[in-house]
Fold this sequence. Notes:
33% helix; alpha/beta; two-stranded parallel ribbon
Amino acid sequence: MTQPVPKTPRFLITGLNGVTGWNLFQSISQHFDCRGTYRKPHPILTQAACLRLDFEDASAIEACLKAWQPTHVIHAWAMCDLDLCEVFPAMAHKVNVQGTCRLMEALAGLPSLEKFVFISTDHVFDGERGGYTENDVPEPKHVFGATRREAELCVLASGLPALVVRPGLVIGRSFQGNKGPRDFLLGRIRSGKNTHYFTDEWRSPIQADELARRVMDLALSRHRGIFHAAGHSAINRYDLARALAREEGLPTAQILPRLRSEDRWAHIRPRDLTLMTTAFA
Length: 281
């Protein structure tokens, strides 16, 4: 028997283990019926709205979609560690490209679907000049960026009512307390560990709750295509780390400067990934 198509928005958000996915879930759940998927179990994810889902299992994906009948699907699940993607490129492709394609194949037969939102990254650009707009042609510098760009192209060619959102560096709390730029840094400081940050890598960070608001607004709009979601100011990673520490009243002495050229992965470190946002004034 065919499930009735929902008349009010019902969101499904993938990637709850990550800072972006978790904050999207937390924010959107305040406004609409929302479910989320995760891969790595955690006690906080035992609530009824959270479902463990393996994106290698097509039948499990189809069962999840059939049971929930979401109108809006936000795909934030990804393998994001730049260094790990270089070491394990096949795994990066499996997660970032094949997992996305498998989800889209299941969504193609979902009558309730009104919008599919793919959360991409500023790393689809090489970082040679910065100030990238949605009209600039991506030139990835590394495996992570290449897999995310390949997934973008698959999304845009899918025929689904789809959006690609490229955030700047997402700053938010993780439920694990040690994930993402903010919590990783604060955890290191509280443990008395030194941490090096690049003075010559520039980003346009965005707060996770602000990203969630923009993604929700876009998901509910008639828009399709590519949109950037970034903060209005550019800052290098060293100064950003110091600012995050000061916000928490923590010392900055353990935050040490480093140049990209001094890093063992120097060839994949971008210089300027700042984004220009044309969709939001």
